[in-house]
Amino acid sequence: MLQILCLFIPIIAAFFMPFFFKKIRNVHTGWFVLLVPLFLVIYYTTFIPVISKGETIIEQLNWIPSLGISFVSYIDGLSLLFSLLISGIGALVVLYSIFYLNRKKEQLHNFYIYLLIFMSAMLGVVQSDNMITLYLFWELTSISSFLLIGYWFNRDKSRFGALKSMMITVAGGMLMLGGFVLLSLMGGTFSIRALIEQAPQLATNDLFIIALILILLGAFTKSAQFPFYIWLPDAMEAPTPVSAYLHSATMVKAGIYLVARFTPVFALSEAWIWLVAGIGLLTLFWGSFFALKQTDLKGILAFSTVSQLGLIMSLLGVSAIAYHVDGAEDTVFKYAAFAAIFHLINHATFKGSLFMIAGIVDHETGTRDIRKLGGLMSLMPVSFTVALIGSFSMAGLPPFNGFLSKEMFLTAMLSVTEFDLFNFSTWAPLFPIVAWIASVFTFIYSFYFVFKTFTGKLNVDQLPTKPHEAPIGMLISPVILAGLVVTIFFIPNIVTDTFVKPAVVAIQPFLYTSPNDVNIHVSAWHGPTPELFMTIGIVIVGLLLFLTLSKWQKLYSILPERFTLNRLYDITINELLGSWMTRFSKLYMTGSIRKYLGYMFTAIPLIVIGTLIVKNAFSVTFEGSSPIHLYAVILIVVLVIGTLTTVFARSRITSIIALGSVGYTVSLFFVIFNAPDLALTQLVIETISVALFLMAFYHLPKFSKVEERTRFKFGRAFISIAVGVMVTLVALSSHSQKFIESISNYYKETVYTEAGGGNIVNVILVDYRGFDTLFEIAVLAIAGISIFAMIKLRLSRKEKNYESK
Amino acid sequence: MKVNNVILQFTAKIVFFIIFFFAVHIFFAGHYTPGGGFVGGLVTASAIVLLVIAFDLNTVHKLLPINYIYVVAIGLILALGTAAISMFVEQPFFTHFFDYFYLPLFGKTSLHTAALFDLGVYLVVVGVTMTIIQTIGDDE
After folding, report:
1. CA A261 and chain centroid, separation
2. Distance from CA of B10 to the nearest CA of A (A)
3. What does the pLDDT read at residue A705?
4. CA angle A253, A258, A264 (to 5 degrees)
5. Which of the 8 DSSP states describes residue A74?
6. Which residues does the UniProt record annotate as the domain Na+/H+ antiporter MnhB subunit-related protein (chain B) (predicted)?
7. Is pLDDT of A703 > 60?
8. Which residue in chain B is spatially nearest to A783 when comparing CA positions?
9. What integer is the mean pLDDT of A52-61?
10. Fewest 10 Å CB contacts: which of A183, A322, B11, B132?
11. Is B107 helix (H, G, I), strand (E, B) or coil?
12. pLDDT score of A454
């Protein structure tokens, strides 16, 4: 139980944040939040000994068993690694945010609630074995990311970035859901583990390739792969702790996780290898190339993240090759999956620290524009050291962990040239070449990031605030991460045995049965191999290009803005959806309720009478009907008079009272037809709605003279007659046809024995069809709160302190 | 124009309690005889509306200083929570439980989780109705 509960602990904690923020003003709310990830880190650490032996732990909580939907916490090497990253980096980021966000100026409770929701959602994504709940958590990460990017919601750019990320990731998520549904149709289960077991049979299905593409689209949008990466640079408007956490260490890796998790299902397919490896490599190059165009510190890091995600993605694509090679566990093809996971860990450490440094620079100097920065080394020595460690690791230099995984990445890319299935021999040489070029650019932007900020001339006048070193609290987290960067370099095998190998087993269950079977030993020096020469080449070419950067960086401005992907997004959102669609909607959305009612009451009879005709469902028999009594006739006369009065009355009061009388008469009908529950409800509803009408009465515009002499409108009369005819036809037909046995007998038989009640109507409401009632009261509540919001919280123009519009 | 509402106000004070207790009655009776949370909520709301008509919104708000939005929230949480309880004992969402107990004073009584759910419905209905009436009535 605890395992499932842990998924929800952050969300449960989120409920208490407003109280902490409002009642305990003297303590930064972040300190309370910090307890949550700390607890989770400790909790998940206890799993390490078991999981690193290759065992898996599963716990399940049924949600909707009839549909096979359940909350599952499935912990194996892969999900444990991600869970530890989420909680570990989460703890560091929360600690960092305590010093980054001002306790007095910021709406901290909002921030931390979003962050905690994200934490739960992300844990859910990586632990769910059930695809439907996986999707649920997946979209929850998109929503919390949207809220966090838009945290400073009075900035135009924040709102734009939030919307953009939401549009792209949610669209991808929907496609992914389609893929999940197809997979479950093919395999007959929502469980990923069960699907992996049937992978060979699935691959023969016609829908297999469609499911593959849909799921990849979900992964690519989330992990900012080409051409969907455009949301990530705009997401940098979020507060820096969020960028470090969501947009570099965890959420953007959800796509990586998904690809890794589904590798055993899809590895059989040629398309999978081509798409994942190809798009990954393209993204790797594209991101590293355009990182040098950026002038914003966080912009550089955003493109660098895009590029590094591409790197991991391409490795996962290559790792699928192992499926097609006999005895791959002893060949060069074993490296790709290992390198992917190893680099994922390393990337989280160095990129997290770099983001935090970018935040510190922004916080202490007031700008992130690299053209204004420079020479901060002497003022901020600690930050400089951390930035240097992070950047060198990113560039792939020893003695930092990036070097190890970068070497292994090159090994994996070189291995592709030895693969001869699927026409790979034609294209394979491209893999190491592109990888090498991208690595050169990675090297340059890593240097660009650290040296343009911290060395060179210091222009204090250009900076909005006088720079100084950050407070100690803010430095703790980046220093810890930088420490890890160095530590991992010196003890790589302890790290890989504990975390990487169990995860590799989860990605390649067809190769290994336990982590001990993964026969890879990481070492910094393995002789004069091609990888080493490639690295030396990267350093030399990279250094040369970095030193001449100022001469050729201008080339970037030659690229026209008009043909970028961002422009495509803007056109789609602003022109296509924004202005064309608005124009189209305005054709029929005129703002007049009468028109809307007209549409609705034209459509309903059309559809219903149409169905009656097409299905030839109309029939009339008066068999078994009871004789009409005099009091029924009297009630009908009253009803008709009341209705006509409502319509033709000269004053509204008369209309309202006449309408009330119609309602009361209907409830009398219920009484004589033995429906006391309905009668009671109708009676009270009528009383309250008359009172409501009288309340609203004051706010209605006066009956104008024009209105009073309303001419007889043929169209409206026709619509109302059509509605009347429709109801009559449906009532007669449904009474006359007895195709389906009435369900009331079932209720009569079970109401006491199974539901423990006596009044069927009420038991239907609370038990048999409780879902309906639950949703109805939810809708009712939304309606009530909306009315309250529209009337009470009307913003006057002055109160709108947004930037523009 | 000054209106003398003495009779209405005096009657309302007494009738309010009659209606309110009737509401409580039909709420509890709902599982076996006509009634239930929805009607009970509406009847309660109509009792308060009667007070509003006899006096005015401000007076009623002083008498019953309730933030009805909270009532809505509590009702929804109660309803959702009751529905979710079953999940934690390995039963599908929305499974109700009931049993018969011998309570002092009441004798053999059926205790049913559906009643808790119905209480949620009751609170939401009262809350929403009163929120709407209060906001529309308040707005000048």
Report:
1. 18
2. 20
3. 46
4. 135
5. E
6. 7-131
7. no
8. B128
9. 87
10. B11
11. strand
12. 87
Domain ranges of chain B: 6-138
What are the φ and ψ backbone dihedral angles of A621, each rounded to 5 degrees? -135, 145
Residue A471: both structure tokens together: 């407070």
| Residue A626 vs residues A622, A632, B33, B122: alpha-carbon distances, Å | 9, 12, 26, 37
Enter the pTM of the model. Answer: 0.82
Residues 29-88 of A with CB under 8 A from B: 61-66
* CB-neighbour burial class of residue B27 (10 A; exposed 0-12, middle 13-18, buried 19+): buried
Number of Cβ within 10 Å of residue A460's Cβ equals 11
Bridge-partner residues for A488, per DSSP?
none
Question: Chain A interface, mutation test: which of B16, B25, B28, B32, most A Cβ atoms within 10 Å?
Answer: B32
Split chain B (140 residues) into runs of 10 and give each run's mean pLDDT.
Answer: 76 92 88 84 91 85 89 92 81 78 73 86 92 79
Residue numbers in A near B26 (CB within 8 A): 680
Per-residue pLDDT tens for A546-555? 888 888 777 7
What CA–CA distances, in Å, run from A324 to A171, A266, A412, A516?
33, 12, 15, 22
For B91, nearest residue in chain A (alpha carbons): A62
Residue with tokens 């039963």: B91
Helix (H) or strand (E) segment spanning residue B103: strand B98-103
A688–B31 C-beta distance less than 8 A: no
CA angle A409, A410, A411 (to 5 degrees): 90
Are A103 and A28 in contact, with CB atoms under 8 Å apart? yes
Helix axes A297-319, A270-291, angle to 10 degrees: 160
Out of B72, B75, B98, closest to residue A756 by CB: B98
Write out pLDDT tens, residues A642-677.
999 988 887 888 888 899 999 999 999 999 888 888
User: Domains of chain A: which residue ranges?
Assistant: 1-203+232-257, 346-558, 560-589, 591-746, 747-805
CB A318 within 8 A of CB A273: yes
- CB B94 to CB A65 under 8 A? no
Residue of B69, B75, B139 with shortest CB distance to A699: B139
For the cut 50, the answer to whether the pLDDT of residue A805 exceeds it is: no
| CB proximity A674 to B under 8 Å | no
Cα dihedral A432, A436, A439, A441 sign: negative
Alpha carbons A134 and A7: distance in angstroms, whole number? 12
At residue A354, the pLDDT reads 92
Indicate the pLDDT class of residue A702, thresholds 50, 70 and 90. Answer: low
Interface of B with A in 117-136 (CB under 8 A): 117-118, 120-121, 124-125, 127-129, 131-133, 135-136
Do B135 and A63 make contact, defined as CB atoms within 8 angstroms? no
Question: According to the model, what pLDDT value does residue A393 have?
Answer: 93
Lookup: tokens for A171: 């669209």
Residue A795 DSSP label? P
Is B31 within 8 Å of A759 when comparing Cβ atoms?
Answer: yes
Using the 8-state DSSP alphabet, how is residue A528 labeled? S
Residue A706 binned pLDDT confidence (cut-offs 50, 70, 90) = very low
Mapping DSSP to helix (H, G, I), strand (E, B) and coil, where does residue B46 land?
Answer: helix
Which chain A residue has the Cα nearest residue B33? Answer: A759
| Burial per residue of A565-600, b for 16 or more beta-carbon CB atoms within 10 angstroms, e otherwise | eeeebbeeeeeeeeeeeeeeeeeeeeeeeeeeeeee
Phi, psi of B41 (to 5 degrees): -60, -45
Cα of A362 vs its chain's centroid, Å: 28
pLDDT for residue A781? 93
Q: How far is A757 from chain B (nearest CA, A)?
A: 5
Q: DSSP readout, A649-711?
A: -SSHHHHHHHHHHHHHHHHHHHHHTT-HHHHHHHHHHHHHHHHHHHHHHTTSPPPPHHHHTPP
